[in-house]
């Protein structure tokens, strides 16, 4: 009975240590007195270890300097270089701005594309996201990314096959069916590729394209999975050692100060890696799209065949497949630190993954800042998808049907200009978006230490949460302003400028959103692994140094679920808004104004909540199930846990 109670107590202590982790905090505080006491009881070899006190580390950054610093870092640099190389090759598509032109030159009309082809991509988005979640749970995120890359290659291959082999179906009498057809629909139905109706062939290619786009959620899971979550800096003794450090089985042998220092440095590097990864991947995407659009436009002006652009796209997709096959190794997907030889990393079942993901999602939403970014993504992503698909139609409407006014905006030149401007905006925002966050947390911690505040004051609402809500409100307001400006403008150049401003605001802010959500999801996923490890310690099993079986594959799967869920919610919002505008048969300008009204309402809601939460402290208090408050029993557990850390040899 006593052993069972002690085991339960150790599990509760470990779970409290993991649950107290704030996903947006950068550990700037020093180890507590318990940690210093533990280090004093160690060997003399640790006495000469350099102190971690002094000047705080540089703040994380997603700007150009921060990305270059992360690329040079030996711990995360090689992996970040592989991520950027894969992204650059995958997004290098010189054929992308000319897809409609290819279809129209091969016999498909613009009406058929709008009515029959492109809606197939929209309808396939939600099933594709479900497939990505299932594949990530069963096969892992790496294999899901491989399937998505292959799906992208199949899409390009089917498009090239359509361009080369489409022809009119010939009847037994030897007369082309489309020659006798006077109706436009009959003409399109007469087109075949390898005996398959051309419309069905193109629709199938759009379904493959939807899965290729959906697999990006699994790629985000890999990108944000390896860096360890950032624990709370309030107590390194409990935050960094979430379960006893054991040599084989049972109680700990000693508290290693050097290992604690190394763990602290690794967490600091992980915190800095998330902004650099998010903004670096976004910058690589925009830069690759910009360069590929310029190259595609230049090749067409040099009288290169249109099909050659799609051939180049196919080769770059093949290159990205080679990168993921050769560089994204299984060690990155399933990585275990200091686990005994008897331990095995098993692929979690679908039920287990779903259960863990629900708990991780609840932990994410309990943090106000991360919850705000999730809501921002759901509110803004559908509008971004709508603008990306319809901005050229708005430009054509502003031109009044005059092709000379819209030709400059129809193809790759203006698309390249948009991506270049968004690239610069992403780096600019990334350079300044994270310093204030670290400053707020550091100032609050220093004030708490000077005033001798207890753990009860930790429930005070952080300024970062209010700053996050204000940032979401401001960015949504900027998006609404650009939409209204584009809808009311009467000159094509002015419309294009407002649309470019929209893309700059969205791309830059979405990078900050991805970094915040990824860090929060990784922290929640890390809590689950620490809780699982604490059970094994309490039952007399062995554990790693931090008491957790660090499976990056498990964390990547949970991340893929979170990002896919956000994308699915955004899709549902998009479908609902699109249904309202279709029901009322609105024109393109009215549709832009409707989207602007929706974004304006969301911006006002974020702003009101920020003002209300600034004065009502309870709004930003974490939910008790995610971050339990300290009790007398918990304090006793902490005392017992700290005493275990000072044991020399048993």
Q: Which fold name is given in CATH as the topology?
A: Growth Hormone, Chain: A
Strand content: under 5%
Shape: globular
Q: Uncertain regions: pLDDT < 50 for 5+ in a row? A: 16-57, 169-182, 227-255, 330-345, 436-461, 526-550, 622-650
Mean pLDDT over the full residue set: 70
Distinct helical segment count: 25
What is the count of structural domains? 1
User: Could you state the order of secondary-structure elements as H and E?
Assistant: HHHHHHHEHHEEHHHHHHHHHHHHHHHH
Which strand order spans the largest sheet, edge to edge or round the barrel?
1-2-3
Main sheet summary: 3 strands, antiparallel
CATH superfamily: MFS general substrate transporter like domains
The helix content, as a percent range, equals over 70%
| Subunit arrangement of the protein | single chain
The gyration radius over C-alpha positions equals 27 Å
> Would you state the CATH class?
Mainly Alpha
Structural class assignment: mainly alpha
Report the span from N to C terminus: 22 Å
Could you give the count of β-strands? 3
Under the CATH scheme, which architecture would be assigned?
A: Up-down Bundle
């Amino acid at each position: 009975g006593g052993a069972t109670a002690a085991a339960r107590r150790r599990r509760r202590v470990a779970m409290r240590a993991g649950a107290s982790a704030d996903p947006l905090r950068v550990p700037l505080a020093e180890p507590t007195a318990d940690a210093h006491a533990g280090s004093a009881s160690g060997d003399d070899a640790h006495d000469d270890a350099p102190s971690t006190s002094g000047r705080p580390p540089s703040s994380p950054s997603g700007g150009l300097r921060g990305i270059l610093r992360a690329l040079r870092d030996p711990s995360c640099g090689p992996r970040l270089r592989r991520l950027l190389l894969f992204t650059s090759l995958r997004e290098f598509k010189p054929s992308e701005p000319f897809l409609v032109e290819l279809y129209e030159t091969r016999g498909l009309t613009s009406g058929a594309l709008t009515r029959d082809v492109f809606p197939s991509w929209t309808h396939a988005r939600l099933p594709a996201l479900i497939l990505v979640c299932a594949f990530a749970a069963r096969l892992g995120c790496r294999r899901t990314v491989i399937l998505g890359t292959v799906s992208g290659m199949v899409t390009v291959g089917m498009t090239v096959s359509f361009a080369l082999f489409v022809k009119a179906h010939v009847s037994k009498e030897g007369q082309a069916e489309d020659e006798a057809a006077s109706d436009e629909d009959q003409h399109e139905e007469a087109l075949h590729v390898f005996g398959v109706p051309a419309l069905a062939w193109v629709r199938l290619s759009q379904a493959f394209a939807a899965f290729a786009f959906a697999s990006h959620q699994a790629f985000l899971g890999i990108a944000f999975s390896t860096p360890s979550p950032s624990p709370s800096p309030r107590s390194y003794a409990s935050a960094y050692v979430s379960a006893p450090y054991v040599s084989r089985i049972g109680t700990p042998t000693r508290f290693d100060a050097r290992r604690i220092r190394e763990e602290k440095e690794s967490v600091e590097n992980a915190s800095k890696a998330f902004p650099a990864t998010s903004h670096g991947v976004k910058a690589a995407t925009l830069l690759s799209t910009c360069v590929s659009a310029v190259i595609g436009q230049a090749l067409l002006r040099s009288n290169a065949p249109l099909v050659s652009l799609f051939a180049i796209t196919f080769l770059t997709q093949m290159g990205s497949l080679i990168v993921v096959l050769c560089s994204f190794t299984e060690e990155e997907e399933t990585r275990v630190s200091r686990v005994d030889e008897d331990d095995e990393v098993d692929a979690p079942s679908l039920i287990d993954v779903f259960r863990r993901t629900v708990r991780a999602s609840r932990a994410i939403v309990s943090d106000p800042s991360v919850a705000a970014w999730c809501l921002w993504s759901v509110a803004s992503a559908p509008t971004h998808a709508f603008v990306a698909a319809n901005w050229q139609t708005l430009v054509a409407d502003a031109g009044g049907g005059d092709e000379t006014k819209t030709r400059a905006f129809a193809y790759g030149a203006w698309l390249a200009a948009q991506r270049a401007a968004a690239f610069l905006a992403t780096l600019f925002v990334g350079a300044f978006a994270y310093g204030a966050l670290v400053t707020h947390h550091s100032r609050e911690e220093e004030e708490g230490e000077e005033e001798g505040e207890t753990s009860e004051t930790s429930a005070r609402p952080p300024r970062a949460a209010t700053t996050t809500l204000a940032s979401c409100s401001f960015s949504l307001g900027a998006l609404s302003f650009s939409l209204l400006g584009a809808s009311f403008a009467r000159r094509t150049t002015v419309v294009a400028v407002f649309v470019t401003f929209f893309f700059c605001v969205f791309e830059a802010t979405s990078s900050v959103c991805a970094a915040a959500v990824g860090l929060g999801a990784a922290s929640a996923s890390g809590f689950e692994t620490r809780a699982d490890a604490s059970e094994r310690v309490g039952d007399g099993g062995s554990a790693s140094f931090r008491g957790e079986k660090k499976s990056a594959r498990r964390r990547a799967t949970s991340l893929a679920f979170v990002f896919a869920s956000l994308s699915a919610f955004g899709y549902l919002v998009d479908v609902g808004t699109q249904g309202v505008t279709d029901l009322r048969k609105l024109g393109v300008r009215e549709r832009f104004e409707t989207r602007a009204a929706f974004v304006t309402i969301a911006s006002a809601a974020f702003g009101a909540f920020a003002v209300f939460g600034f004065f009502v402290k309870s709004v930003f208090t974490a939910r008790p199930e995610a971050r339990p408050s300290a009790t007398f029993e918990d304090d006793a557990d902490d005392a017992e846990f700290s005493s275990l850390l000072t044991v020399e040899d048993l």
